[in-house]
Amino acid sequence: MVLDQPKTVYSDATAQARAISDVISMIDPRDTPLLAKLGLDGAREKFKLNLDGYKIEILEDSLDPLEDAINDAAGWDGSDTEELVVDDASKFQDGYVILVEDEKLVVKNVDTTNNFLEVYGRGFGDTTAAAHADDTVIKIIGMARLEGDDADYGPIVDISAPYNYTSIFQKAIKVSGTLQAISQHGIDDEFIYQANKAVPHLLRLVERMAFYGERVVGNASSPRSAGGLGVFITDNVVAAGGAIAKSHVDSLMEEIIMDGGYPDLLVMNPRVANDLRALLDSSSFVRVSQDENKLGVDAIERVMTQYGELELVMDRWCPTDTAYVLQSDKVGFYSLRNFESYELARSGDSLKGEVVGEFSILAANDKAHGKITGITT
Q1: Does residue 27 surpass a pLDDT of 60?
Q2: pLDDT at 38
């Protein structure tokens, strides 16, 4: 090729050197905030898991129940001294003092076959007999027994075993012999580089499993799968039906506290967290004077409620329509096999290997957690 004078950088680039960085920057952030907060194998210590298996169970027990409800379409008349029909008579025993709205009664006899209670008359103590509608809550508030009475046997709550399965996470690696041999910018060993790159990729899938996982036992022809938080958290649910509001967090916290839980984490998508922050930015309680040198307020790191303080965990893998309130000492990831990379048998002119790990997630005490659903951003 003949060039006109003068020769420029545009006319012949064949011999020109390229300035190439010797460090490769990863474009996608490899953040896994929930894993960072709970640990990749935190469930093992929290729940005293001393054995390994692909099915993990937590043993849970609870104290006797203290509430039931009337189960009579006609209700219970204020002058009725007959049986009080309830949802589950096995929750009661002779001598229980019960409260139905403002009326107190003492249980005289329990019929678990027909689900009704006999009482020692109406309006115990200074209370007054009154009519009570179907589904009215019955609270067990104390005991008043006959002196010298025989022993009476009340309810026994059986041990339960919430469980989950493990999911296998795997990524294969195949590098040609030539690529493994040549020099590259930013890469000393192509096989090791690809193996190291696979781990943060798979960790993101472990994190996403916490939000999207389906609990499936699996068999020879069907893959085994770990369920996510939604498998365990079903008791306390608040429906937003629109943008997130502080009242949704407060309402959910109230329900969890009334169930006996003490949550400390609020997990949500950053887009939802921004909507929560916008409530504070636009609040009439925030004042900005001419002396201020910044607009807006500091980023929200914790959410204060009447029932306790929640640490905000922004997780971009969390669905935008759901936020979770968790008690961190009762939820954790489980590692059956930590990630390991190893070479596979050689065949042809290439180096082959894979990265494999096996993980799950567990949440104990359903009533200690909750979620806000139906959020729009």
Answers
A1: yes
A2: 94
Average pLDDT over residues 248-257: 95
Specify whether 247 is located in the same domain as 122.
no
pTM of the model: 0.83
Are the C-beta atoms of residues 337 and 204 closer than 8 Å to each other? Answer: no
Same domain, 197 and 317: yes
d(CA 17, CA 202): 37
> Three-class SS string for 121-186?
CCCCCCCCCCCECCCCEEEEEEECCCCCCCCCCCCCCCCECCEEECEEEEEEEEEEHHHHHCCECC
Q: What residues make up the domain containing 132?
A: 67-143
Is the pLDDT confidence value at 221 over 80? yes
Q: Tell me the C-alpha distance between 171 and 84, whole Å.
A: 62
**What is the distance of C-alpha 283 from the center of its chain?**
30
The helix (run of H) or strand (run of E) holding residue 174 is: strand 167-176
Q: Are residues 53 and 109 both part of a single domain?
A: no
Residue 4 placed within a domain: no
d(CA 226, CA 173): 24
Look up residue 296 and give its two tokens: 């807006």
Over the stretch 269-298, which tens digit does the pLDDT of each residue have? Answer: 999 999 988 776 555 544 555 566 655 566
Number of folded domains that form the chain: 2
Cβ-proximal residues to 170 (8 Å cutoff; 6+ apart), any chain:
202, 354, 355, 356, 357
- Asked whether 100 and 138 are in contact (CB, 8 A), the reply is yes
pLDDT digits (tens, 9 = 90+) for 299-315: 778 898 999 999 999 99
Residue ending a domain, among 112, 143, 174, is 143
